[in-house]
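Replying to the earlier thread about multi-chain prediction with a worked example.

Input:
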Amino acid sequence: MTGAPRILPCGDCAISVDFGNVIDVDVNDRVRRLDVALAGAGVPGLVETVPTYRALMVHFNPLTTDYEALCRIILDLAAQTGGAGEARRRWRVPVVYGGDFGIDLEDMAAFSGLSVPDFIEAHAAPIYTVMMIGFLPGFSYLGGLDPQLQRPRRDVPRLKVPASSVSIGGAQTAIGSIECPSGWHLIGRTPAIPFLRGRDPVFLFDAGDEICLRPMAVSDWDRLAARAAEGDAVVERIA
Amino acid sequence: MSHLVIEQCGPGTTLQDIGREGWRRFGISTAGAMDRLSLAVANVLVGNPGGTAAIELTLAGARLRAEGGSVLIAAAGPGVTLSVAGREIPEGQSVLLEEGAVARVSPVRGGVYGYVAVAGGFDLGAEMGSLSAHVRSGVGGALLQPGACLSLAGGGAERPLAMRPLPVPEQGPIRVMAGPQQDWFTEDALARLTATEWTVSQRSDRMGRFLEGAEVAPNEGSMVSDGVLPGSIQVPPAGQPIILMRDCQTTGGYPKPATVISADLDRLAQIPAGAQLRLVQVDREEALAARAAAERVLSGFAAEPVAMTPDTSLLLRENLISGVWYPGED
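Result:
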């Protein structure tokens, strides 16, 4: 937890507060703490913040922001290691692994040298952290993947993968949102809908949330998917 | 209820205002007008606040019809003109489109994006605080198709307005600030970024402007994703820069040697595919001065009622005026 972040200019309207070029739980935690602290600091001109794996992007109005003061406040806040930040929310998320819901599961298990049940167990075991939401509305990048489940992305991306796919790409695993092109390996799918317009809340997850994946039976899919489509979160908050 | 019918339009027609903020942490792009200056001109010509939602046209023109009442409309953008019943409306001037009358909007002859604003704006539901359509995600709506009927909020100015002179966009190279990842590039690559005469690729759209003309490949290595915004210049391993535009995603994993300053995004958007551009590096102070100047132009916008000759006043008084006649012609 040492070392000041670097403040990288991103034009006149944003900066990237960079904690290092790594995917790392502690680095991501520093990003999250700074995000929480900055939200509470009431800095004039601040527009919004975007936490990512290893940096906090800070968008501001250049005409109403004292740039030097903003940088000073950020470096001060980043240096404060005390305080736990806001309590994390933890969600239990049902996932159907394999079959039509995760067409790459068997291939992934073979690649990892695991049986399919062991692969599922290893993927569902960690308490993941939402390290970043990006790419598409509500697309959640999870940190904490078991290294033996890693695999480089596909050479040829698929033009369309189903909404709410659970996938692995390199050292990362993710819960998708809407249908999209992807080069990641599809291992399962949740009936939960991370981004649903008209529902309150529109987004189920925020950066910093914790995620526990719970394998579910394919026979429960239709029931849960129908509930989700009607606006039920389907995920359960457990902390 | 009054509405505007889109009888004909090109494939890149959407509704845009100045975009949505506050949702980027959830992966929601800001979207918004590619050329906010032209959006503001169209709006001021019909008496609206400059950031009111308007129809954004991409290259192609459109044919629009008023239904259920008359409506004051205006078009803006490089080389965009309006004509009604074969009569061309002078640039920088709005026109009252009578019920049932049809307005033809010309193609965007001098750029890429054109805007059509209506007095009082459209009566459509905002999503996450904005009417801007982000077509890729569906947030804010989809592409507008021929046959679409857009409800009018009503109110607003009823008499034609004119703005003269029209604002002239700055000329010269597109200004960039170094960073955030200039240290991922060699000195040579960075020098090529500002020394090259770039050609805007045909692949360009609301998400990004692809540049061709040289390679500025980043150093080898795997970069972990961080935030991006309109203006970010990202460079994939092959070395062809992409300048991200209003519909860009919120995060990205390609190194970014430089960022286009906010004051230059509007005119960058209007540089068509096949045309050339240069980039020049400025510092924060210059970027701020440019942004402040751009804001002064926007806040100084004013439109005056179109002057009427005695003859036209007489016609108005006697209620003889119709959709085929336009006041203020020279």
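DSSP finds five helices and 23 strands in chain B.

Feel free to reuse this layout for your own posts.
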